[in-house]
Each structure stands twice: as structure tokens, then as C-alpha cells.
Design brief:
Strand order of the largest sheet: 1-2-4-5-6-3
CATH class: Alpha Beta
Number of helices: 2
Strand content: 35-45%
CATH topology: Thiol Ester Dehydrase, Chain A
CATH superfamily: Hotdog Thioesterase
Radius of gyration: 15 Å
Helix content: 10-25%
Length: about 150
Amino acid sequence: MAEFTFPCGLDEIKQVLPHREPFIWVSRILECSFNERCVAELDVDPELDIFRGHFPGHPVLPGVILMEALAQTSCFCLLGGGENAGKLGFFATIDGAKFRHQVLPGDTVRLESTITKASKRICKAEVKAYVGDALAAQAQQSYVLGEK
């Protein structure tokens, strides 16, 4: 199991998560207590190709990308240490998702995940995304853990 010092960047994140460009949605981990809580950030690159179509003239980061970024934050928390290290996390559910504030090109999004249940097979988390002090999105997510 790898040892991490926080904050940490993309090199350390890639040691835990299988995601790679263009689908890694966590820029850095600010703090993490494995299997308990994780706080990360996503720097929203204004040059992302997704902004050409969502929406021309008023680019906004899609809510599904926020949900994915939050899931990646949770999975770092779940898979970076302990008995689940080395597994993969797959979405099982997204419940109560609410989108409250637009995320724009150039924003830095704070991603917060609190693990509410962690077992060898199913894990659940309360997740929230913020731009500054504004709550951008929140949900309850669950993940199925599987072998690589």
C-alpha cells in the first residue's frame, strides 16, 4: 500500500484511480482519511473541448461531470488505503442529486466526500461540490467495488 502526504497531485491520484486524461476529474487531493472523508479540487480548464457544445456562448460544466468528479474523490478515499486498495469502484446509484450553482470555465471546484458505509463490496458516500462558498452540487452516491 502506497503512503501519501496531503496535499498531493495527479501523480499520486493516478496511483489509486485507473482514470486517465481526458476522463480524470480530480486535480489534487487536499486531505484524506481513508475510508472516512476526502477533500479534493478540480481545476476546470477553460480549454476543455466539452465547452464547445455545452453551451456555445455560455459554457457550463455538465452536472454529470461534477457527479463523476465526486465519485472519483470518493473512490480515492475508498481505494487508496486499507482492504479495498487496488480495487475498482463502479457507480451503483446516485440519489437525491441537486445542482444549485453553475460551474464555469476557469473555476476551481472543491469536492467533498464523506463515506457513510464501507464494506468489501458496496460503499456509500454523501458528496458535495463547491465553487468558493457556493454549493454547486450534492448527492448520495453508492459504488460497487470490484477486482481489476
